[in-house]
Design goal:
There is one protein chain. The protein is mostly helical. Helix content is 81%, strand content 0%. It is built from 2 helices and no strands. The mean pLDDT is 90.
Length: 63
């Protein structure tokens, strides 16, 4: 992942968080909104961790 992709993902993540806050402020369900945002975060980091583990299992010549 290059720097531009990181910036784009960070901007998307910030927009989702802002949307969540506005939804809660407008009477949305705080529990559902925060759970959805937390699940996105967990899924993203679990995928990154799984990818890292798979990389460790590869023989050194294929890395």
């Amino acid at each position: 992942m290059d720097a531009e992709e990181r910036r784009q993902r960070a901007a998307e993540q910030e927009k989702r968080a802002d949307d969540m806050l506005w939804s809660i402020h407008s009477g949305g369900d705080m529990f559902a909104e925060t759970l959805a945002l937390a699940n996105e975060f967990t899924d993203r980091h679990t995928a990154r961790f799984g990818s890292w583990l798979r990389g460790l299992r590869r023989p050194p010549e294929t890395r």
